[in-house]
């Protein structure tokens, strides 16, 4: 797995640590569920449990947002949704392109959770001429020859790579050259990007391998007659901070990308 080296410091310019930033989506997901149930306020303990985070950590995280809640009442759900959305840059629309519209790309294109969170799928791009013009999830696929024009015309800054691993670096290079500065990589390969470009990667097989490790350990402990380890809690993988980021200049070498779903 990538070590997550990038050019950014562990603390953002506005003073919010990367570890806190990584937990904000977890809070937002829990708060959105509360909002949908018209719950007006929530205590730090309740919200921490819903987000799978320690409540002291939650209070510390929210202090960076200037949100302290009201004693005996808790946090205002709607206001916190607004605050976190604003902090994450979700109060604006982010056009996204997906490159590689095979099994995975098509599934991502049809995923309603992007649009509902402010990520508009602006274009679907594939190198297969047979797919050009065919609608996937209601969006016509465009040929990769037009990638640069599409990025430019739609003002896209976020690209999703769902191509075979062998072409992912080349696709990444084209996206970056065209002006994309954030990449979500699903291809099982480590991408090199220049400074100023953020890469997050998702690899579900790595998550399964980590679960396999824990399964093996549990089985070993049971066989050894030891007490079973603590179970039952969802590990907030995405809340784990990225590894320290280098501040060196130049193109980020291999491992310059960061896993979007990080193991604990
Ligand atoms: N991260 C994960 O958890 C996860 C899960 C499933 C698949 N994957 C990976 O996602 C990728 C896609 O998997 P899939 O099952 O959808 O494969 P697929 O073969 O169904 O689709 C790949 C698509 O990419 C297109 N393509 C090939 N070269 C291209 C290029 N240069 N530019 C644009 N498009 C190009 C192909 O025409 C095809 O439509 C693979 O790398 C796979 O290993 C990752």
| Main sheet properties | 8 strands, mixed
Mean pLDDT: 83
Strand arrangement in the largest pleated sheet? 5-6-4-3-7-8-9-10
CATH topology of the largest domain: Rossmann fold
Number of strands: 10
Give the fraction of residues assigned to helices.
Answer: 25-40%
Topology pattern, helix = H, strand = E: HEHHEHEHHEEEHEHEEHE
Low-pLDDT parts are 1-13, 228-233, 236-249
User: How many helices in DSSP terms?
Assistant: 9
CATH architecture label of the largest domain: 3-Layer(aba) Sandwich
Percent of residues in beta strands: 5-15%
Amino- and carboxy-terminal Cα gap: 13 Å
Chart the SSEs and their pairings:
Blueprint: H1 18-36, E1 41-42, H2 44-51, H3 55-64, E2 75-76, H4 77-87, E3 94-99, H5 103-109, H6 112-116, E4 119-126, E5 135-136, E6 139-143, H7 147-154, E7 158-161, H8 165-178, E8 182-185, E9 198-201, H9 204-223, E10 258-259
Helix pairs in contact: 1-2, 1-4, 2-3, 7-8
This protein binds nicotinamide-adenine-dinucleotide.
Describe the structure in your own words.
With 264 residues, the protein is of the alpha/beta class. The protein folds into three domains: 18-87, Winged helix-like DNA-binding domain superfamily/Winged helix DNA-binding domain (Arc Repressor Mutant, subunit A, Orthogonal Bundle), CATH 1.10.10.10; 94-202, NAD(P)-binding Rossmann-like Domain (Rossmann fold, 3-Layer(aba) Sandwich), CATH 3.40.50; 204-233, no CATH class. It has helices at 18-36, 44-51, 55-64, 77-87, 103-109, 112-116, 147-154, 165-178, 204-223; strands at residues 41-42, 75-76, 94-99, 119-126, 135-136, 139-143, 158-161, 182-185, 198-201, 258-259. The strands form two sheets. Strands 5-6-4-3-7-8-9-10 form an eight-stranded mixed sheet, sandwiched between helices. α9 (204-223) links the parallel β9 (198-201) and β10 (258-259). α1 packs across α2 (44-51) and α7 crosses α8. The longest helix has 20 residues, at 204-223. The model is unreliable at 1-13, 228-233 and 236-249 (pLDDT under 50). The structure holds nicotinamide-adenine-dinucleotide. Nicotinamide-adenine-dinucleotide is lined by residues 99-105, 125-128, 144, 162-165, 167, 171, 186-188, 202-204. Residues 26-65 bind DNA. Modulates transcription in response to changes in cellular NADH/NAD(+) redox state. Keywords: Cytoplasm, DNA-binding, NAD, Repressor, Transcription, Transcription regulation. Residues 219-264 are annotated as: Disordered.
